């Protein structure tokens, strides 16, 4: 029997009745890495466990965090629509998600509550359902080392102090990371990521002010 041709990446994880006739515009010109992920059947993707998440953060391999293939496809469709409607992802984040009329901080780092907003990661990575992924957005800069693109020792300690004060009293197990400059999808607004393991839902509602991630809203 002739060998069956593999599906084009843009048909994978799509019901056959809904297969597009050609590659959708939102999937054109994406990276080979994204093509490879989107072209992987969801059933072949393994969700990361909490020990795996902690270890990847500990060894600073945050570049290996990936979305579930079908979620990455939805994310690409979403950001394609955003750029058309808002001009850029940053405009959407600032105006709709953060609802900040000014990005000018009122105080020094972590000094003024109004300079900080905690929201769900709109498009979280492929994680065990017990892991909740939040993003802490700040109006103030958190200094990076110019050579490495990673946090300086001082900014790392500032973030650590904030995380311990804000999250640790309420969640037994947590971890945080700040994307390397080369990995950031939103460059103009400072932010870092916090992973919580089995957090209390009432605490989540309180700390995010009842936020709902865009992945739960986007059709």
From TrEMBL:
Pfam families: DUF3605 (PF12239). InterPro entries: DUF3605. GO terms for cellular component: cytoplasm. One of its GO terms (biological process) is N-acetylglucosamine metabolic process. This is N-acetylglucosamine-induced protein 1. It comes from Curvularia kusanoi.
